[in-house]
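anyone else get weird line breaks when pasting these?? whatever heres mine. first is seq + tokens for prot A
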Amino acid sequence: MSQMDSQSSATLQSPSTYSDSSKTQSTRSLASSREEEDLTKDNSASPIDLECHIQAERITKILDEAIYKTKLAICLPIFVQEYRTLSSILKVEHMDDLTFIFEQYDNPLFSTSLLNVAAMEDIKAGDISLKNRLNPELGHLMYILNSYPQLRPKAEQLIAEIKEEHTPDNIHMRRKVPGLEYLLTLENFRDMMVKQMEMTAAEELEMKMHTRKLEASNGKLLEKIQEYTKCLKEENESFEKSMRIKSEMISKLEYELGILNRDADIFLKKKILDSDRQMVLATRSHLIKSEMLKEEEVESRSMYENLLKAHLIEEKNQRARRFKVETQLLSWLQKYDLEMGDKQLELDEFTDNYEDELKKCEELEKKLAEQDIEYIPLMEEREAEYQQELTEKMNRFMLEHAARVIQVAWREVLQNRAEKRRLKKLQKKMQAAAAKAAKK
């Protein structure tokens, strides 16, 4: 156990031997391009620039190692579940160490280290927190995993899948992964450091000047905002004053409305009394009319009986006349049947003559169609001239009508202005009378 503790402390203190393999493909391409530039410019570059370049490469290597180790730490729970993949890549000795560390981490009661003895005492006391279950052998575990570059593509693939799950589109489907935000911030910090180291002093100075200009423009904008706030306060105060005046006017008008409502109530009471009187008079007149109508009903019934007797007598006479008319119609129909045989011959002659006349008419229509070819264009010219005359007359009429409408409208405007002046004078008189009444 002491040997493993010493190995884990050594891994924490010393950089990894596989630091070159901890870079991504993009960082490798950048490093290769920079090395080519350095090889071509060894003679011309100054030692200070070369030293800065070397320090920048060292910083990027350290950051890449830290990023890869965080990725391994995030993927560690998944690697624990995938025992076959670890056993196929790792050696037997390292695999035994890993299983021992996993058992020690998962069940601290069976470990013999001093830290786990303290954890056992805390568990007996009732404190079962995660901090008491951490083991010092985790550093050694990270050293073992980092020493195998074959795990790198698997870890990169798992991290890529986790990042795809944590896109803003998959908010409902994603699961919580501890340490992912730390990894993202560390990668952003590494990109920012690379950009900052690639930036020249002139570019940095230019950025500072740009920020100073923005600060100056922000100061001017703040002054304008203060001026606008003052103007808004003044406008609000004037608006409040106008609202006070309007509220006073509203209170006065409400008082006048109360007086008018009282007068209206008195007037309505008078109207109700008058209507009651009229209802009493109407009921009396209705009773008198009902008696008169009853007398008229008796007289109308007697008249109705007399009319019925007269109508029955007339009905008998009408039936006798109807019988006579029907006999006459039968005799006329018999005569019609006899005469129709002679008339049919005449009708056949007339139809023959009609067909001859139709043939003559068709010939005449053909001649007229030939004449229409010359006649129609002449009539169209005449119709166009007639339409032109009509449009001129209509335009004249429209102008005269528009002039009359404008004159009438102007007279109405003058009348409306005069009426408004009269209404204003009446309102002033009413206000003066109300003011006098209020004073009294």
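and prot B, same format (seq, then tokens)
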Amino acid sequence: MIKKPWALALVTAVVASLALSGCSPSASEPKGPVTLNYWDFLDPSQANPRSKALKENIAKFEAANPDIKINLSVVSLGDMLNRLPQAAAAGQAPDVFKMFTPVVPQMASAGVYSPLPDAASKVTDWLRPTDTLAGPDGKPVAVPYEYRTCALYYNQKILDQIGATVPTTYDQVVEVAKKAAAAGYTGFGTGFSDTDNSAIISTFFNCFMTQVDQEIWNKDGQADFATDKGNEFGNFLAKLRDAKALGSNVVSDTYGTVADGMASGTVAMAVLGTERAVSFGSQNKDLKWTALPKASTGDTTGTTIGWTLGIGNGSKNTEAAWKFIEYMTGPEAGALMATGGEVPTRAATYQQPFFATPEAKTVNDIAAYVKSNSEPRTYSNTWTALATGLSQSGQKLTLNGSSGNDFIRSAQDAANKN
């Protein structure tokens, strides 16, 4: 029922920290048929590859587990962030929900998770450490559903038209973007809207800070990135503005509108998540992707991010909920999910036949890229305040002509007002 309202290194990652005590399902857990309320931002009724894979995986899980039905509600990330704390406080949190990696600690602090059950400790082949997916008490509350990082997407046809090569530094990005803008395109796509939790600018910022080896928060949890390294991000945006290479609607542009612009051939370049590579390949043959450009310091290594699955606080169906989560992160579901361009999170998945086929080349390339060009990050519980601060600072940079340094300082201050 739908309601709208990483061939690859198969190295076992031993995650001893997953062992929990005293978290077994309650003796009062319902017996017999169970309906799990599940919140996901993807709409299975849509025709894109990721939505199709989700729909098929849910159907296969229900067929294999006839006593468990999935009641899926399509909820945007922004709505989840607003509704989950309220729902948990009222004892109405969903049994299972998907959550973006940077926000897990914040949601855990808000009390929206139940600790993972003992059975979770039996899964030990996660390809990235999971210790950051924990609550304030250190107990694991979520597991990774898919991995992604940032990449530079570019339209080869546009670059050929303006006589440009693929940029490998951010300074070169500005030069190429300026030429593309002069030819009538949006030279570099990004956006400062806060309607989708400022996803495009906050994701880019997250990866850039890893590239230049800049921590976002200090040991006390205070945002502390207004440094020479941090300022380089703001100054890159200011240079794009001065080159008139940003979109005319950059103040209101979102992750989705920039992705649409890339697909339609009106945007020359953008930094987006690797999850878009497969769909872009089917939408526009001129779209290519490559490693992030280099800043004046650091390298091309971005941040490992992605979506996670966890159990809602107060769920009376934790055993069934974990069974669903284990399936959705397991080999069979992971192989199907990969057909949509998402990178599975468990080593066992890559032993599935699909990954030896020509059709799996793109997702295998993405998975190898995520492994070699990204690192996990530990987050504070002020991610949404930071993300909003980045959007608001971007609007000031665009509308008021503020400097790149001011952009960074303003975003830092916003995060620390939380």
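btw re prot B: The chain has two domains: 2-6+32-147+305-367, 150-303+382-416. The radius of gyration is 21 Å.
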